[in-house]
Specification:
By secondary structure, the chain is mainly beta. The protein has 3 domains: about 1-205, no CATH class; about 220-300, Immunoglobulins (Immunoglobulin-like), CATH 2.60.40; about 305-383, Immunoglobulin-like (Sandwich). Helices cover about 5% and strands about 40% of the residues. Strands 16, 17, 20, 21, 22, 23, 24 and 27 form an 8-stranded antiparallel β-sheet that branches. The longest helix has 16 residues, at about 1-15. It is elongated.
Length: about 375
């Protein structure tokens, strides 16, 4: 049995000596990341590219565990080769296995198959015998193996060149899961830090819907679609200010469980009326996505006061917007920290939109003095 296994390994390794990346571009750790997967048959996963990748670039995905003691893959599973199709990949684009073009799957003295008992997905360039790792995910009970244990079909050591919490993620038998990407990110490092944090992943009982829709990975996408909104009675009106074919726009909102489509009707070329979700979370995080390109704008956090129609939202990077309906005149507006110290104020102004910049994350009290009315509104500012 040993000699047969040795012969099989020799054949496999000889084959992979001739397999190496066709480097249309050399990538670095964190350029490609896994954002969702289903280990339950049929196998699925989605990879997000954080950079533009030209056509012809090749990289690999394997469920073979990495053995740090031998600095080699443990054979017995499979290898997927992905070749970037004509036109290339843009930053923020998801690559979905097995449906997207460009994937070729083969066995490594075994076959590619994700185990419900736990497994790993390792992305690399180079070759099977000399990999340059880009990202690693393990969903094995206990995470990455200590080097005192040998990898099995379901486990792996932390691959060479990767760092846990930066470009390598360890989950604990999530089996079907997706990264919670609903909130905006200020830079690549923050995105990778959150992606590599198990607390930022959603575990589901059945299947994750892939690729992840309504998820724009803000720091990666270009903000080409200027938009704003206002509340009228119980209606949410959305306004598109940039010239973009409106037929390509889909509006999404965030819930603790997932991102969902917001039901909207187009009133004219640049204006939409949307139905507020019956069980919407407070606040409501809303964003537009371009359907064909699977690109999304930043979320805007929408809060409203039913009695006055006052709307306030937080769009990231320390910005708080407040819209006052035409029926009201603001006599005095202030923003305080919870310790009572004032950070902003504005004197009398009618039917105004106020934008407050440069705020740090934290809790604030917005006080609005209207004619014969006073409102104190709690604000939770997130990045």
């Amino acid at each position: 049995m040993f000699s047969f296994f040795a012969r099989q390994c020799a054949i496999v390794f000889a084959c992979f000596l001739s397999i190496s990346s066709v480097l249309g571009q050399t990538l670095v750790p964190g350029d490609l990341v896994v954002v969702g997967y289903n280990f339950k048959d049929p196998d699925e996963f989605s990879i997000l590219s954080l950079v533009n990748v030209p056509e012809g670039t090749q990289f690999f995905i394997t469920d073979c565990g990495w053995n740090a003691n031998t600095t080699a893959f443990r054979p017995g599973e499979g290898l997927i080769t992905y070749t970037v199709p004509p036109g290339g990949i843009i930053a923020g684009q998801q690559i979905h296995y097995p449906n997207d073009a460009g994937f070729v799957t083969q066995g490594v003295s075994g076959f590619f198959g994700l185990s419900m008992a736990g497994d790993q997905l390792l992305i690399f360039q180079g070759s099977f015998l000399s990999p340059q790792f880009l990202f690693g995910l393990t969903d094995y009970n206990g995470g990455w193996l200590s080097t005192s244990f040998s990898p099995t079909n379901q486990s792996s050591h932390l691959p060479t060149g990767l760092t846990a919490g930066q470009n390598a993620l360890e989950l604990d038998e999530f089996l079907q899961a997706q990264f919670e990407c609903a909130f905006p990110f200020s830079n690549r490092e923050e995105f990778l830090s959150r992606l590599s944090n198990p607390n930022q992943w959603i575990k589901v009982k059945d299947r994750v819907i892939l690729p992840i829709l309504g998820c724009g990975f803000d720091v990666l996408a270009e903000n080409s679609l200027g938009w704003n909104y206002k509340m009228e009675d119980d209606r949410l009106l959305l306004f598109v200010s940039a010239m973009l074919p409106t037929k390509e726009i889909s509006w999404w909102y965030y819930t603790p469980e997932s991102a969902r489509v917001l039901t909207c009707w187009q009133l004219d070329e640049n204006r939409f009326e949307c139905e507020l979700p019956e069980k919407s979370s407070d606040p409501l995080l809303v964003r537009p996505c371009t359907i064909e390109a699977n690109r999304c704008e930043k979320y805007k956090r929408i809060d409203w006061h039913p009695e006055t129609g006052i709307v306030w939202y937080i769009s990231g990077k320390g910005s708080l917007g407040v819209t006052i309906p035409e029926a009201h005149t603001v006599i005095h507006a202030t923003l305080h920290l919870t310790d009572g110290s004032m950070v902003w104020q504005q004197k009398e102004k009618s039917s105004a939109h106020m934008n407050i910049e440069g705020l740090k994350p934290g809790f604030y009290i917005l006080t609005l003095e209207l004619a014969q009315l006073m409102y104190r509104i709690p604000i939770s500012l997130i990045e």
